């Protein structure tokens, strides 16, 4: 179940969805997508509702990048106490060739700037696709090799 709270969201819906039983399995996943880095202040007891979820219910909370004030807020600290925080920051398009070069270096390979830019353009910001292309290069070229010409287009 995916919940995307907006202004006026009934936080009781979160508790109700966590308490409801599934017909098809023992485990339940609730994804709570917060669009703002500061949830509305009129949502009392948010962290209490997360705590009340049955143990077979996993609640995944996603939200935009938080600044220092957001990470120090009481609601975020309560969220940290109740679960695990994993920060995932996207790789900016301009830094993708550098990201690819670092991954190639891990497998003892390197590429010229034009090839790195070509790969970045081909994967269009998709990190999984970039990772797969890097793995293909590991299979096709031995370690310590250099990719000097762009790969053929698919």
List the helices and strands and how they pair.
Blueprint lengths: L1 E2 L8 H8 L8 E6 L12 H6 L5 E6 L5 H4 L2 H9 L13 H11 L3 E2 L1 H11 L3 H14 L5 E2 L7
Parallel strand pairs: 1-2, 2-3, 4-5
The largest beta-sheet arranges its strands as 1-2-3
Helicity level: 40-55%
How many strands in all?
A: 5
Averaged pLDDT: 79
Spans where pLDDT lies below 50 across 5 or more residues? none
Return the string of H and E elements.
EHEHEHHHEHHE
Tally of individual helices: 7
> Structural class per helix/strand content?
alpha/beta
Distance between the termini: 37 Å
Radius of gyration: 22 Å
**Outline, from the CA principal axes?**
elongated
Strand content: 5-15%
Major beta-sheet overview: 3 strands, parallel
Describe it:
- With 154 residues, this protein is an alpha/beta fold.
- Helix content is 41%, strand content 12%.
- The chain is built from seven helices and five strands.
- It has helices at 12-19, 46-51, 68-71, 74-82, 96-106, 113-123, 127-140, and strands at 2-3, 28-33, 57-62, 110-111, 146-147.
- The strands form two sheets. It has a three-stranded parallel β-sheet with strand order 1-2-3, covered by helices on one side. A two-stranded parallel ribbon has the order 4-5.
- β1, α1 and β2 (28-33) form a beta-alpha-beta unit.
- α5 packs across α6 and α6 (113-123) packs across α7.
- The protein is elongated, with a radius of gyration of 22 Å.
- The chain starts with a strand and ends in a 7-residue tail after the last strand.
């Amino acid at each position: 179940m995916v919940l995307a709270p907006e202004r006026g969201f009934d936080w009781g819906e979160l508790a109700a969805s966590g308490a409801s039983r599934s017909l098809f399995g023992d485990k339940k996943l609730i994804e709570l997508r917060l669009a703002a880095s500061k949830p509305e202040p009129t949502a009392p007891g948010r962290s209490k509702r997360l705590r009340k979820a049955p143990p077979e219910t996993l609640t995944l909370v996603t939200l935009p990048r938080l600044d220092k004030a957001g990470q120090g807020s009481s609601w975020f600290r309560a969220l940290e106490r109740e679960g695990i925080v994993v920060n995932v920051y996207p790789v900016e398009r301009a830094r993708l060739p550098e990201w690819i070069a670092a991954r190639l270096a891990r497998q003892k390979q390197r590429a010229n700037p034009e090839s790195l830019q070509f790969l970045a353009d081909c994967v269009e910001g998709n990190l999984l696709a970039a990772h797969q292309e890097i793995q293909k290069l590991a299979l096709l070229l031995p370690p310590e090799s250099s990719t000097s010409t762009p790969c053929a287009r698919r």
